[in-house]
Amino acid sequence: MTGPVAADIAAGGLAADAPLPRHPRFVSLEGGEGAGKTTVLNALREALLHTGAEVVSTREPGGTPLAEQIRELLLHPGDEKPSAETELLLMFAARAQHVRGTILPALERGAWVISDRFTDSSYAYQGGGRGLDPAFIAELERRVVGLRPGLTLLLDLGVAQGRERTRGRDLVFGQTPDRIERERDDFFEQVRRAFLARARAEPERVRVVDASQPAQAVADDAVAILRLFMARSAAEQAS
Ligand code: TYD
């Protein structure tokens, strides 16, 4: 992605008919609860650091001080339940800040960015899970985000297995589930379906990893996919 595109985003969106640019140094990790994103993120980070690259690891919702405050509102809103629309707009408010404050500056200085979740999560959770119109989400994406990752790793796991893992983690670390983690299984089935639909629609960008494997195998698969992606990007640049 070149300078003018970043400037377009800062100015408030791309032209209605412009396809969203994918940035070749921007990687996102997606998946349901308990899919092992943290282990994979660390493995990707190590692999990239080995090449001598600067790596910025970040997360959504969050990734800047203000976006982290929005995250707190989203996950621990107190007694008042946010509507689905409020939830969607807060996710995008956090993302607008994250893109401009963290992601674009890092990409522009030549770093790699790995984000634990990005816009695909809004299509899956607020679109699939909450039933909001994907066309509305696409409009927000075009106007306030304006870019997609070059590579998205979708760590796919059955809902029951994911639940078992998060329950184990909560017991070990004494954590209590946040507002979204307390949703019912049918919500997470819809989320999973929506993620897999995104992978079918954009198979080149969204690569599915079988997250039911042991953590090390999941991380190894993810690193292998990243290496292939890097080799392909380098070949494209050379041609
Ligand atoms: P997090 O603690 O990062 O969850 P996980 O460990 O499962 O990644 O909390 C983020 C929660 O926010 C997670 O339940 C997914 C949800 N979410 C959305 O609903 N929409 C979004 O656009 C994003 C980025 C996250």
Tell me what portion of residues adopts beta-strand conformation.
Answer: 5-15%
Based on Cα principal axes, name the global outline.
globular
Fold-level CATH name: Rossmann fold
How much helicity do the residues have? Answer: 55-70%
Under the CATH scheme, which class? Alpha Beta
CATH architecture: 3-Layer(aba) Sandwich
Number of strands: 5
- Strand order within the widest sheet? 2-3-1-4-5
* Ligand roster: thymidine-5'-diphosphate
SSE order: HEHEHHEHHEHHEH
What is the typical, i.e. mean, pLDDT? 93
Top keywords for this entry?
single chain, alpha/beta, Rossmann fold, five-stranded parallel beta sheet, binds thymidine-5'-diphosphate
Word description of this protein:
This protein has 239 residues and is an alpha/beta fold. The chain has one domain (25-238): P-loop containing nucleotide triphosphate hydrolases (Rossmann fold, 3-Layer(aba) Sandwich), CATH 3.40.50.300. Helices cover 58% and strands 14% of the residues. It has helices spanning 3-11, 37-50, 65-75, 84-108, 119-129, 134-145, 159-173, 185-201, 215-238; strands at residues 22-31, 55-59, 112-116, 148-156, 206-210. The protein has a 5-stranded parallel beta sheet with strand order 2-3-1-4-5, sandwiched between helices. Helix 2 packs across helix 9. The two termini are 17 Å apart. The mean pLDDT is 93.
